[in-house]
Write a structure and sequence with these properties.
It is built from 7 helices and 2 strands, in the order ααααααββα. It is mostly helical and 171 residues long. The longest helix has 23 residues. 32% of the residues are buried.
Length: 171
């Protein structure tokens, strides 16, 4: 599958799309689970609730945020692929994290949660054909294609894994 054109998504997502290493997005999404488990398994228990700055999320909150965002973007992909005509709403990630209680869950459980959500999403995405990947809908007041949503999911995950590596694990 080809990389989405910048006209297929809001410019806000450009950084995420550019992080995706190659165009076989289903392969990238599948391989990310192995990488995510490798990164998160290296986190010491005493670092699971670490914040690198007072206003930043803990590693658990970052992973929980990744799960929430994956679910939301996959829902958008499902809606657009199925021809939804209504505009889909945005969401406030800070409010979602603040109301999620991720810090009361183990990092291992959150990692497993991510893995299960990704497996379900891959099962869905593998049913899409080229026509479905090319469909355009509206989410968060912008046009977006199904293809772009999959690249955004992958890029968002890579972005946060990079942050975990750079800001949490190197300290």
């Amino acid at each position: 599958m080809k990389r989405p054109n910048p006209t297929e998504y809001a410019s806000y997502y450009d950084g995420y799309v550019k992080l995706v290493p190659h165009e076989n997005i289903l392969e990238v999404l599948n391989e990310q689970v192995i990488y995510l488990k490798s990164v998160l398994s290296s986190v010491e228990v005493n670092k699971e609730s670490y914040r690198y700055a007072p206003d930043k999320w803990t590693i658990k909150e970052v992973v929980g945020h990744m799960v929430d965002t994956e679910r939301i973007m996959a829902y958008r992909a499902l809606c657009v692929a199925r021809g939804e005509k209504n505009a889909l709403p945005g969401y406030d990630d800070k409010e979602y994290v603040a109301n999620a209680n991720f810090n009361t869950t183990s990092l291992a459980a959150l990692t497993n949660h991510f893995e299960l959500v990704r497996a379900a999403n891959l099962a869905l995405f593998n049913t899409f054909d080229e026509e479905a990947f090319s469909k355009i809908g509206s989410a968060n007041k912008s046009d977006i294609s199904v293809r772009a949503l999959l690249f955004i999911i992958a890029g968002h995950t890579l972005h946060h894994l990079n942050v975990i590596n750079e800001k949490y694990l190197l300290t």
